[in-house]
Target: Uroporphyrinogen decarboxylase
Amino acid sequence: PAASSASPSSAAMRRDAPFLRACRREPASVTPIWLMRQAGRYMPEYRAVRNKVGFLELCKRPELACQVTVEAAEILGVDAAILFADILLILEPLGFDLEFAKGEGPVIHNPIRCPEDLQRVRPLSDHQPLDYVTKAVKLIRDTLPPRLPLIGFAGAPFTLACYAIEGGGSRNFETAKSFMRTHPEAWRTLLDRLADATAIYLNAQVAAGADALQLFDSWVGSLSPSDYVESVQPAMRRLFASLDATVPRIHFGTDTAMLLTHQRDAGGEVIGLDHRVPLDWGWERLGDQVAVQGNLDPTCLFAPIPEIRRQADRILAEAGGRPGHIFNLGHGILPGTPVDHVKALVDYVHERTSR
Ligand code: CP3
Model:
């Protein structure tokens, strides 16, 4: 892997940041917390930027992506920033026609529906078509306080394939899962191509200054354990094997109670748990060779602050003060979440765990 563009001394300054220590399962001065979708529509500062530019344009303008990333981390006082981008951006250079339609979420106008369609899935070439993302990473790294780690991310092959085949969001993924069962060879080829492109993309984020990586396999919980092991885990192993392992990798999914050990076996130093599993039960299943991230129900943030604190206490008790817990939600912050409740959660976790 290429050397980081950020100076080594600056990376050294972050080595002992609570978030990176927890990723390595080392004791930290505080239980670190950051929140998935911490930059988003619930935040007025984000909406002000979005009033002026479309979502894709925001992702493609490094100075704006940098602004919303850094602003969100500062406002909340979290222990890590996450690159502002989207898991679907990688589909464009692979040959997909991606649009974020107003009020409808993502649309892919040329989804894959038969094995022949795979011919138009291009490999990610070295003439960096996603260089607006690496530019954003560099800019964010140069703008953030030197002690604050930056998380880069990408979508995992299964979750990306769901969008590439369904052509957008889906409740049951019947089109994608039918493709998987009807054309197992083509499915494997598609997932391998997505894995290879994703490895190039994520390694470029590390080279540009990302201190950790998260893979979002958001919809993987729709699979049975046997389908996961047979049809998805091989591509995940391939992906993790190609990733720069000098930075911690967070492997996240939702609804994964029955998949946790299989996800762990595929790779990642940190496993994301959603709110459907008790954190202690999940960590017990995973064993003590991985760190865990999670897992407050995002809807708890709509509750009164004392109730948010009570739920946070319960999760901290489940973690039992063991090194290697990164506090987060079970899934992303929802639009409409009160910002002061999010801040109250961050402050409370810090207050309760500072040692
Ligand atoms: O966490 C962060 O703050 C970093 C930014 C980030 C976004 N999307 C910004 C975004 C991250 C990490 C993502 C990941 C992502 N994108 C996932 C995986 C995470 C998850 O929630 O499971 C998925 C499935 C997507 C695909 C996607 N992007 C959908 C389905 C939508 C539309 C639904 C929605 O919430 O609007 C998006 C749009 C999107 N990505 C927004 C943001 C802030 C909202 C766009 C807007 O400003 O209107």
Q: What stands out?
A: The mean pLDDT is 96. Residues 162 and 177 are 8 Å apart (CA to CA). The domain at 8-353 is CATH 3.20.20.210 (TIM Barrel). Strands lie at 81-82, 98-101, 105-108, 150-155, 212-217, 249-253, 270-272, 291-296, 325-329.
